[in-house]
Each structure stands twice: as C-alpha cells, then as structure tokens.
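Think of the structure tokens as a kind of shorthand, similar to the way a musician reads notation: each symbol stands for something richer, in this case the local conformation of the backbone. In the example below we present two proteins back to back. Begin with the first one, reading the sequence and then the tokens, and try to describe in your own words what changes along the chain.
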Amino acid sequence: MCGIAGTIDTTAERALARVSLLNDAQTHRGPDHSVIARAGGITLGNTRLAIQDPTPAGNQPFFSADGRYTCVFNGEIYNHRQLVERFRLPVRTACDGEVIPQLWAKLGVQALTELRGMFGIALADTLEDRLYLARDPFGIKPLYWRLLPDGSFAFASELRPLARLAPGTRVDDTAVARYLRYGAMAADQSPFREITAVPPNSVAVVGKDCRVEVRPVRPDGPATIKQRHSDLGAALVESVDLHLGADVPTALLLSGGVDSAAVAAIGRHLGQDLRCLTVAADGAPDETLAAAQTARQYGHHFQRVQVVLEDSDTARFFQAMQRPSVDGLNTYLICQAVHQAGFKVAMSGLGGDEAVGGCSHFRGLKYLPLLRAMDMLPIPVGVAAARLAGVRGAAGQEKARRLLGKGGPRNGAGLVGLKRELFPASLVSDLTGVASTPAVEDAGQPGWPAGCSPGSFAAMAAAEVAIYLQAMLLPDADTFSMASSVELRVPFVDSHVFSAALESAHGRNSALGKAAIGKALGDRYLTALATRPKHGFSLPMGPWLSGPLAPLVTAASEPDAPVWSLVDRARATRAGLASPRPRRRWAETWALTVLDAWLKTWAENPA
C-alpha cells in the first residue's frame, strides 16, 4: 500500500518540486520509503507502506526488463506469483508491484485485465512519452488528476495535495448534490471542478501534450456472468488465500456477522492462525460475545479493543477526509485501533452484503411483480404493505409510502436508490439548485452485468455496488485506513467472487442471501449465523451528536457557516435542517455537519 504522485511538466526543476510536495502530503500512506524518479518527460513519486518484501529491494519505482516502462503503484496485486509463473516474467524481487511493468511489456494495456487485486497504477512509457493511470475493477484504490494553470499535468492518490498545488480550486455543485442525495459522492466524481477522478475499471491515457483519453479496462464491468455452473465457495477460499499473503502482521476485523466469520472459517481451513480484533464503543451495540464465539469456533486468537472519541480524533478525522462522507468515522476509529494494536494489515468482510444481497432491501426484489401490479390493478395498499413488511421495516414510513405509491421504484436499481437515499431528490434540488438524476442513472455502470433484466438480482447488485460500495464504503475504507498507515483488505470485493455469486444467481429475481455463504463453504456454523439479525460495528452517533460532536453541529447551524455557501439556508431552515438540535435520523444532521467541517478544513489550509 502506498501513495503515488507525478507530473508531466516541461520544467524538470518545477516538476521535482511539485512531486516532492505531493509525496510529503501523502507520507501517511507510505511512511517506510519515499522516492522521486524521472522517466523521460514524466516525473513519478511514491511513498511506500512496506507489506510485500518489506526490504529495500521492494522499493519503487519498478522497471520493465527492456527499460521502456517505469511504474509506481498503490495497492496489492494478489496473483503476482501466478502471473510470474504463467508469463515467465523476469522479476528480481518478491514484491508484487514488479510484475506490472514486466507484464505490460508483454501485453500492453491488456495487462490490466490479468491483475487480480486493488490498485492505482501510474506507468510511464518512455518510448511513446505517454503516461497511463489505471484503477482496479471496483475502484478500491483512488486516483485523481488535474491540469494546472501553467498547462502542466499532475496526479496523486489523494485530493488534498492536488488541490493545493495551485490556487482557485472550486467546489463542484453537482458533486455536492450527489453527496446530499446519498451521503457520498459518486465513485467517478471529485468534489472539485479542477480535479478529475479516474473512474473504477478504467485507464486514463495521457499524452505529452497533457490531453487525456479515458478507456474502460473491462467493457462488461468488474464482474461478468460467464458460466451457468459456478462455485462460490471455491472463489471465496481462493480470494481469502490470496488476501492473506503478507510479510507483516495481519489482523482480521471480526464482527458478530457472517462476512468476517467466513474469512475466519476459511483462514482455519487454510491452516492459518488469525489475530481477530473486535472494536467496541460505549453506547453502541457490543458484538464482543458473538465475535469471541466465532473466534473460538475456528480456534483463532481474539482481542477486544475499546474506542473512545477524543477531541483530537475529530480534528484528525476531518483533516484526513478527502471527500465528504456520512459513514467514515467508524472506519477511522477502527483503523486507528488496528494501528495502535501493532498491525499494518487488516482483513475485513466489507463487500459481502453486495456480493450475495445480504441487506434487507434485497428482499424487495421478489415483490417487484406485486408493485407493478399495484400500478395496474386496484390492490389495496394495506394488503401490499403487509406483504412488503420486510421492505417497509427497512425503509421507514416515508420511503414505504413512496415505494407503494404510483411512480415508485419498480426495478432493482430503484430499490437501491430508495434505500440509500439520504434526502429526496426534490429537496436536494431545492437546497442546491442542482437537478438530481434518477437512481438508475446514478448507478454508474448500468452496462454490467451484460444481459441481465432490470428486476434481476444481478442488476440490483450492480446498483448497490455503484451507489453504495464504490461511492461510500470503498473510498472511506481507503481514506481512513491510510490515515493510520493501515492497509485494509477486502476479499469479498473481488471480480472472481462477484462473478461466482452472479453466476450462482443467474436468472434469479431474488437475492442469494447470507445463508448462501455458509452453504457454499459447507459450514453449518455460518449457515446458522445467517439466521441471526445482521451485525456490524456501529457508533452511538445519536448520543455523540448531542455530546462530543455537539460543537460541530452548533457551528454548522450558524448563519455564517461555510455550508451555507453551497446549501440554501432558508430552504434548509424550512426543512428543519438548520437547527443545532440533532434530528431523529442522525444522518440528516451529520450530513450537513460533515459538509461544513470538511469545507472549514479547506478554508484553514488553502492552496
């Protein structure tokens, strides 16, 4: 895991100075080594968190055998040993990143389709004087670029360093509207007009004239349906096995639920003794007993870590925040605890819900025919509401009313949009003056999986990935783990795992559900665990908004608060959103508080 940066600049001295600034600002991503290298007219930078081959031999940049390609990268290539053997790559070290330029020399840009892992890659082609910037299929690792006022080009793993390379950075109103709608900006969005995100599953090709062409790496998306008969269990075992490969201490973030328990089960199957950490906070549901039971079940070491929110934590949290998000504080506190416990790498069950449709709103799939019939026939709303009890309980009364009413969502993407919506589209438009787009358009990658119907599990899973996993969970996981110099690994967020899940559900109009994980692994304990209520680490946000976070809430309600430069305060007041008293739905209060605090960190540290 690392931070990468670079420039295309005709002035070498200026390029070196800029990349040095970018490296310094990303030291938390890689405190073990820092380097700047020139490759023709391209300057590359890297700050290294040493995980694979932590000796100096693993320091970047990496070169192809013929010297044509120079590469820096952030992330992990989990199948690097298999690639070395399969393509007979002339590597000199055990570091995973060395395979990238060597494989590129054989396959060109198609090398990206062979990489299994999480990555942000910058590769310089010195023969063509061209730069390639690539992100992994799901966008687990971030990568941003901008054109500077002097005509030069710069890129980095994080937004903040890029924004401060030149003055005049402006917040993008469209991105703010997307944030207010769903609690996070889209995976291919930047909060600034002058900075662009490389989309997930994409490569940006940059010429020496700094013109940029963005191409998809896998046109069918990060996961595809290739077979009718798949083995989800085998895909999970293989993915966990690959993700366990590290040359430094690794922890498993263990909750009381199925996803992380599946990693624990597979670890034991592979003969691995894991160190399991469960994080608890006073005032929030405590999963210690359930997690400890899972650790005992599979013979792993167990440790409970108590987290407390200090004033200094809040300040560091917002200084680390690259893009506003309503869901990152938990990840920040967890990864801070992981770092303090002495680990550089942590495994997480994140992504399991999206892979098998484990969240409650996936139950709505089987009711889509009934919902469509309601639009055509005089079916009493009470009857429909009774049948939709599971969806209604998950969505809340107002969302249930919209779900049952004419014009409500009638496909998988619509169900996801309704569930994940923070503020309704009409209110967001009133608050920002930006017209909001339908959930299906926000899905980001509507073309995958190819050939699936709008009411299928595959279509709903794709929308859940785009609207929630790629937009919120993965960016938060990267930002707030790297703030503590921790690499967070997510074996469920793997193209092979998702493809196997989609193949298992091929043609289904209902979710696989968490029981599918235990069934696929032939594990009775996991199957029984799937019948219990959904678990996961949570924070006592309601009490905290009236307690240690109350000063931030009050500050955001002041008439001169920065948030009102982007949000219409009069309309927010009419909607009850400008009060210093937290709302019943804590996320509504926290959304504006986060936006205000994030804006203040930029005002305090301008370019």
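Once you have a description of the first chain, move to the second and do the same.
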Amino acid sequence: MRVVILGSAAGGGVPQWNCGCRNCRAARIAGLSRTQSSLAVSADGEQWVLLNASPDLRQQVAAHRALWPRALRESPIAAVVLTDAEIDHTIGLMLLREAATRLPVYAPAGVTTLLSDHWPLFRVLTAYAGVDARLLPDGDRVTLRDVAGRELGIQCTAVPVARRPPRYARDAPAACCDVGLRLEDPRSGGTFAYIPTAGAVDGAVRALATGVDLLCFDGTFWSDDELQEAGIDAPSARAMGHLPVGGSDGSLTALPPLGAKRTVLVHINNTNPILDRASPECARVEAAGIEVAEDGLEFDL
C-alpha cells in the first residue's frame, strides 16, 4: 500500500491568504507553500483513493503524475473517503464534478447527513456526475470498491473520535461528525491509521493506531492558546476539538506509547511553530521520533 501526503496544512494552507503570522510571512518570502490536508492511498499504484478532498485538490493532482488522467476523460481516482464534513475536507469534491461517472464517496452516516442538509454538497453535485454515497459503519471493516464494484485492495475501518461538529452545524450530534480511519492492505499486511482531527488520544485512537506501520495524526496546534498568543481572536485548540501537540498531556507524550512504526503529524495550522525546522518545538517533535509532514511525502507499507 502506497500512501502520499497531498497536503500537510490545516484549513487555509500556508501561507493563508489573509494571515501575516511569522510562518506565513516566511513562506511568502521563501516562495514556499503547503496545501490543505488530503492524502491519497493505493494498493497497486494504478487505482487511488483520496482521504478527504481539499480545496487545493486540482493543484495536488497536478503535482503527482500517478493521479494524472491516462485518457481523454479518465482519472485514476477511484473513490474518496471522508473523515468529517468540514468545508476544507469536502469542497474538493466540487473540483471533481467533471467526472464521467458517479464518484464513490465513503463516509459515516452523520457526515453524509450533513453533506445532504446543512452543507448540501451532495445535492449540488447531482446536477453534474454526482456521487455514489457509501456508508462507513462505525467499527466495521469495509472493502473499498470502485464505481463498478471492483475491489481496490484496501480495507477501511472507521471509528468516531472525540471532537465537535463543524461550525456550520453546531446543533449536530458530535459523535457523528468525525472519524479516524484504519486502512489495511490484505495482500501486503500493511496497516495505516489516519486521524487528521482528534480531541484526545483515547480508546478510539488506541484501537485505530496501536502497532500500525504508519500513523498520521492531528498536528494542528502546538499549544492550546496558540491562536490567542498570536493575537488572533479565536477559541482555544481544545475548544475547536484539536489535541495540542505540546504540553504535559499533549499528543507528543501520548502518541509514542501506541507503538506505531512511524508517526507523522498532519493537518498543521499556519501558526504552529513546528513548521519552522529551526524551532525548539520542531526539535522536540523530532527528538520524540515523530515526523512533521511535508506535501508530497510518500510511504510504502
């Protein structure tokens, strides 16, 4: 199973269009950028599954030859799996509206409900190729398949993780809004846990990530008051449903006992000091044996 980090940043990317924080200023000066969070996985290098659909999806597809079309109107993107209904994880589906056939989109029931009601993306897409909405039941292993029902060589288990509903759907039950994924390649035995947003390292996270070959985990914020310290009027990291990386009870302490062979922080906000490779925070992450994701990073499991 091959895993490609298409985008390593949280919503807004780096630099964010309206942000003048230290990291965004440095990115503009250096001509560097990070696109918004999304991954691609494949069991054979031919058919690919997207994990979330970023607003930067067109740019991400263009940057990876394996995702380029091989015919006039064709794509190796065979399916999409959504971990939540956040705008920055779903709006990329609009960029896939020119598909020649309906696109299989796997999601928990609560996410499908939000995308059919509060944020009616699925309904809008019916005017185009449309989506083939497929359920990811809590805790059940599902074999991912393309639009014709052919197996894609990857099994997926979704488990709800501690977080809050999207801002546009505050009245929605929190349990339905976010899941973490465990992906398995039955042929190679490779295992991968993808948890881009999580409010805790709890029993659900441990069930998904313990002993996996690769864990990609929520690295949104370094500290709980990171945005306020930067002078931004915003809730704390925990109030937004993100476990901070730093601190005595942060993910930097909680993740190593899970025993993943490689742990990579993804979905990194533009204010997070770990984006600066020379920062003491980045040094602490690396000293713990944890990696900071980069766009384009690849893994073979």
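Compare your description with these statements about the second chain. The longest strand covers residues 151-160.
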